[in-house]
Specification:
The complex is a heterodimer of chains A (224) and B (483).
Chain A (H helix, E strand, L loop, with lengths): L1 E5 L3 H13 L3 E5 L2 H10 L4 E5 L7 H10 L6 E5 L4 H9 L4 E4 L4 H15 L6 E4 L2 E4 L4 E4 L2 E3 L3 H12 L4 E2 L1 H8 L10 H13 L8 E4 L3 E4 L4
Parallel strand pairs in A: 1-2, 1-3, 3-4, 4-5
Antiparallel strand pairs in A: 6-7, 7-8, 8-9, 10-12, 11-12
Chain B lengths: L3 H48 L2 E4 L2 E4 L17 E5 L5 E4 L19 E6 L5 E9 L2 E2 L12 E8 L1 H36 L1 H12 L19 H47 L5 H32 L8 E4 H18 L3 E6 L4 E4 L1 H18 L5 E9 L2 E8 L22 H4 L7 H11 L3 E6 L5 E8 L2 H12 L3
Parallel strand pairs in B: 1-7, 10-12
Antiparallel strand pairs in B: 1-2, 3-4, 3-8, 5-6, 6-8, 9-11, 12-13, 13-15, 14-15
Helix pairs in contact in B: 1-2, 4-5, 5-9, 6-7, 7-9
Chain lengths: 224, 483
């Protein structure tokens, strides 16, 4: 899942970027409002973590503009102001959640994950596709009661497919949601990772779950 | 009793009572005097009419009183008396009511009545009048007779006048008492009514919310005397409200500025601890945390200094300071950062720039000004530092290129927590307190500080400090002035 962090305080931005990346997110970071807005417009993010006091364009303005342009991307506001007014203003302008500084990183992570689920209209952190079970909170994957160990990238790919279970997802869509601007993957990297994933998930005797739709992309779901 | 109502009531009651007592007494004295005068005059006229009946015939005196026509001299409970004396030894006549008693002999100059209050022979209180006169001659032609001088004394009881006066006394006393009681009641009503606005005002004050300083007392219909109180209170509320607002904003700003670095440190540490890392990674995190810690320390110190100045707890200890030398000292800890940013620094430190000032405070000012210049100078930009004597003062000018303070914002650079747009981007450790502290400190040192910006973005801070001894004296005078 791809996350944008717009935060002007260097140490916090760096730490959040690193933390979310290590938690399996593709992360873009920006230190000022103008750049942040540009990022938000040019990519389809699963969550935007937005500081309110920003140079050039402040967080509330970014929020207003994105919503005015019809963007429904889940936005989590970070603020050092904790009055009811401050929080209500953000939520009323279209923010989905807020966190008052300083906060526990675990909480930020949990909220970001919850926002991702909400973005895909899923309340249950556990996604069931046939006999495949993906626990997005614990980042644990089981098939037919057997645990499957995945690398961070493989997991991200599977989670993206699972959130779209039953739908065809394009290679570009996958690309956009599991890689950030800084990664420079080979053009066939999605196919390569689909291959890795198939090897770990598909086993003889069990139904096929990852289907290729020629010219369109991939689909995760029980055999149709 | 300390209530205004009671005090007003008691003092007006005392006043009313005094006025009533004095006027009652005056009235009584006047009435009494006129009663006695009337009594005396009536007694005297009685004596005169009796005296007219005394005649001298040759050398004999004849008293032609017709006892029947003068029944008041007959013995009775209210009898009057007369007694005609020829001399102290010889009584010519006395009224029958007198029996064998004497009325006493009093006399003034001839024909001039003399009065005396006495106890009458039967024990009643009374008053006598004595008139010395020469009786009329029966034969007016006979001048040979030698005129004789006699004294007629007439007495009458005074019970009537005394009881009238006693009644008057009682009446006056009763009227006074009644008047005092009635006026007390009326006064109490007026005082209560008059003080109603005070009660109303105190109710208004009591209704003011503890936390709401925006409320004002409605002054409509308040008596003129209370108008200054209402205005004064409203004015006080206004100033308190503004001060509270400032304080609240300041506290919120402080909280905000401390929370952001706290959030940074916490996230850095939590992410670092989320899994096992190599020594270099930990080292990186620790040095990052240390940097944030230093920023926070600087900020807390600035805050503390500002708070001390605000509380008037800052003591100035003056000594002779060589400004260029102090500038170089302050530059040392900052030099590395300037080198990192590849800034060109132009030094123009003139001779003779000594100032009588507080070294530690000035050091704090210089550190903040220089740090500000390094922070805001554009990458590979210039910093120019100039110090020179300037008409009894020492002038220090620090300018840097690449400033982004708009000309209309220059006046705000000394405001607490004000910051130029990208200053946080340059370094989040600068929370807009440094220059504010500089201004406060320079003011305390008796100098002045100003900021200017040019179209090409050169930002300049100019500080004037009093230098010479005369100025030092003046500054000292200013410092010694009680706050």
């Amino acid at each position: 899942m791809r996350v944008l962090i717009v935060e002007d305080y260097d140490p916090l931005r760096k730490a959040l970027g690193q933390g979310l990346e290590e938690a399996g997110f593709a992360v873009d970071i920006s230190a000022d409002g103008e750049e942040g807005l540009w990022y938000a417009r040019s990519n389809e993010y699963d969550v935007i973590v937005l500081d309110l006091m920003l140079p050039r364009v402040d967080g509330l303005t970014i929020l207003k503009r994105l919503r005015a342009e019809g963007s429904a991307v889940p936005i989590l506001i970070l603020t050092a102001k904790d009055t009811v007014d401050d929080r209500v203003t953000g939520l009323n302008l279209g923010a989905d959640d807020y966190l008052v500084k300083p906060f526990a990183f675990e909480e930020l992570l949990a909220r970001v994950r919850a926002l991702v689920r909400r973005g895909y209209n899923r309340g249950d952190p556990v996604i069931q596709v046939g006999d495949l079970q993906i626990d997005t909170a614990a980042r644990v994957v089981n098939r037919a009661e057997r645990r499957i160990d995945l690398s961070a990238r493989e997991y991200a790919l599977l989670e993206y497919l699972a959130l779209h279970a039953g739908e065809v997802v394009s290679r570009t869509g996958i690309w956009e949601h599991i890689y950030d601007f800084h990664s420079d993957p080979e053009s066939n990297v999605v196919d390569v990772y689909i291959g890795y994933l198939r090897k770990k998930i598909e086993r003889p005797g069990l139904p096929k779950l990852i289907h290729t739709r020629r010219g369109q992309g991939y689909l995760l779901g029980p055999s149709s | 009793m300390k209530t205004l109502q009671a005090r007003l009531l008691i003092s007006t009651a005392i006043g009313t009572t005094l006025v009533l007592l004095v006027s009652g007494t005056v009235l009584y004295v006047l009435v009494r005097q006129s009663l006695w005068t009337e009594f005396d005059e009536s007694l005297a006229s009685k004596a005169r009419s009796l005296a007219a009946l005394v005649e001298q015939e040759n050398d004999r005196l004849e008293v032609e009183f017709d006892e029947a026509s003068l029944p008041e001299f007959e013995p009775s409970d209210h009898a009057e008396y007369y007694q005609l004396w020829l001399s102290r030894a010889r009584v010519l006549a006395r009224s029958r009511s007198l029996g064998r008693h004497d009325l006493g002999l009093i006399q003034g100059p001839p024909n001039d009545p003399a009065y005396q209050s006495v106890r009458l022979p039967d024990g009643r209180t009374g008053r006598i009048v004595g008139i010395a006169f020469v009786p009329r001659l029966e034969d007016e032609d006979n001048q040979a007779d030698e005129p004789l001088e006699v004294t007629l004394v007439v007495g009458r009881e005074t019970a009537g006048i005394e009881s009238a006066l006693a009644r008057l006394e009682l009446l006056l006393f009763a009227v006074c008492l009644l008047a005092v009681l009635v006026s007390l009641g009326v006064l109490a009503w007026f005082v209560r009514r008059g003080l109603r606005p005070v009660g109303w005002l105190s109710a208004q004050i009591a209704d003011l919310g503890e936390n709401d300083l925006s409320a004002r007392i409605n002054g409509a219909g308040v008596p003129t005397e209370l108008r200054p109180v209402v205005d004064g209170l409203n004015d006080l509320l206004g100033r308190l409200g503004a001060a509270f607002q400032r304080e609240r904003r300041f506290t919120a700003d402080v909280a905000h500025e401390l929370r952001t670095p706290l959030a940074g440190v916490r996230s850095m540490l939590e992410v670092a601890l989320s899994k096992k890392r190599n020594a270099e990674a930990y080292q990186g995190v620790m040095s990052d945390c240390l940097a944030v810690n230093q920023q926070m320390q600087q900020m807390v110190e600035n805050l503390l200094n500002l708070a001390r100045v605000d509380a008037g707890q800052l003591e100035i200890e003056r000594e002779t300071v060589d400004l260029p030398e102090l500038i170089r000292q302050c530059w040392k800890p900052l030099a590395e950062r300037a080198n990192q940013r590849e800034l060109d620094v132009d030094w123009h430190l003139g001779d003779g720039c000594t100032v009588e000032t507080d070294r530690a405070k000035l050091r704090l000012v210089l550190l903040n000004v220089l740090d500000n210049a390094i922070t805001h100078a554009s990458g590979e930009g210039d910093i120019v530092i100039t110090s020179s004597p300037d008409d009894g003062a020492v002038k220090l000018v620090v300018s840097n290129t690449g400033g982004n303070v708009a000309p209309e914002d220059v006046q705000h650079v000394f405001d607490r927590f004000w910051r130029g747009d990208t200053s946080r981007q340059a370094s989040a450790g600068h929370c807009g307190l440094g220059l504010s502290l500089c201004k406060t400190m320079v003011d305390q040192l008796g100098g002045s500080i100003g900021a200017a910006t040019t179209a090409d973005g050169t930002f300049t801070i100019t500080i004037h400090l009093p230098s010479g001894n005369a100025d030092a004296e003046r500054a000292k005078g200013k410092r010694d002035r009680p706050e």
